[in-house]
Amino acid sequence: MLLLQYLRLLGIGGIGIIRMSGRDCFEVLNKIFVPKKPEKIENIKGYSIKYGFIVDNKESIDEVLVSYFKAPKSYTTENMCEINSHGGNVVVRKILDLCLKNGANLAEPGEFTKRAFLNGRIDLLQAESVIDVINSKSEREVKTSVKQLEGGLSKKIKEIKQEILDVIVNMDVSIDYPEYDVDEVANNQVLTMLDSIQSKLEVLEKSFDNGKIIKEGIKTAIIGKPNAGKSSLLNSILKEDRAIVTEYEGTTRDTIEEFVSIEGISLKLIDTAGIREAEDEVEKIGIAKSREIANSADLVIAIFDSSKVLTDEDYKILDIIKGKKSIILLNKADLGCVLNNNDSVFIAVTNNIVNISALTGEGLEDLYSIIVKMFNLDEINFDNDIIITNLRHKNLISNALDNVKKARDTVNNNMPIDIIAIFINDILEDLANITGEFVTDDIIDEIFSKFCLGK
Ligand code: GDP
Prior knowledge:
The protein contains 16 helices and 14 strands. It has helices at residues 25-32, 89-101, 111-118, 124-135, 139-149, 152-176, 183-216, 230-239, 272-277, 287-295, 312-321, 344-347, 364-374, 391-412, 417-435, 441-449, and strands at 3-6, 15-21, 33-35, 48-56, 59-69, 80-86, 105-106, 218-223, 246-249, 256-262, 265-269, 299-305, 326-331, 353-355.
């Protein structure tokens, strides 16, 4: 089947790209593309570009460049071409319609990548990382996703699978030739293998703590009584050159989640719209709301006006952050502090206390380095570590670890080797599901439906 898609659906850009994939895509192209220097398709090399015009009944539609990719050396491993036209919506639509009229079908979201997977060029894990690269909100996230796209995690999973397979071969001998007394040897091998893969899987499972932060950002709440300086702090974080701000619709209608990037990691600031837009003092976030926000956060930044003595409301804020991952900011340092960062009321709650001035930006660097330390961000080696960022992968690794424990129990309980083999096969199956060897069509459809059109 032939499919096509154009890459830029909304808005107007310099160029529009129409992509076709499938055995017959060059035939469709031939019907609508007149190159300046015509050449037989057999003579056109893959990865080459030709200049010419898209025509409909001898009428020129647009001046274009066409890239040729020949099977199997293309994104989908099929014959592919990309028509680079001018970017206006009318032109792109017209070329798209022409392709459809001449035998192409419209692609579903993610269909190109799905074909790359089904045709065996990439595994499921790599296909999923394509979505992650596209949706990345921070530099670190791009870096981690690209590493998965390159196959870092796939390779690791393959190594672990191989380790299991090496032992299964010996177990099969035991099952097939029970007259040979290889059980004991096999059991010892199984236990050694289980220990080894358990520690590798645990490292991967643990990496999800960081992976989640990389992917979803650190859900951060800024709380404090009215006039403590919440919105000023926010503005001063957002003003920083390095802060990349993206606004997303929040889960409830009246919240906006804002992402800022600090040291390449996103902070997802909760309900900042509420903080910044409330003009009326009464409307500014109250204690009950602060408690609610703090409860849903990974990190709570509590801000106090250090030029004034603490009030009842401040004590309530301190009460909210007790036992939570929190940072205390003693704001308005430029006004001369009445509050002291050695004060026991603060130390009793957290050691992370920073003097800042939201107005001048003083102390912001200290705030950032505390965040980096609190979430061990400096310990993540983005160049070498393999980090799990996808919940599906993490769940399968956790399943595999459960099956490792079950397999070990069966060995320790002297179960017959064919029973042990069942659990070991379950581990293999969990791992194979990550890379997509055994996954069902439903899961594949669900994964690819999250893609954008044209990918
Ligand atoms: P919010 O109600 O907690 O959002 O507080 P705002 O950010 O609106 O700040 C209340 C007032 O304090 C404003 O007039 C700010 O300009 C002022 N303010 C905030 N931070 C500082 C600071 O660090 N130094 C000084 N001098 N004034 C500040």
